Amino acid sequence: MGSSGHEVRQLQRRLASVWVYFGRIDGRYDEEVRDAVARYQSWLHIVGDPEGVYGPETRRNLEGNTPDV
Question: In the CATH hierarchy, which fold is given to the domain comprising 6-65?
Answer without folding.
Answer: Muramoyl-pentapeptide Carboxypeptidase; domain 1 (1.10.101)
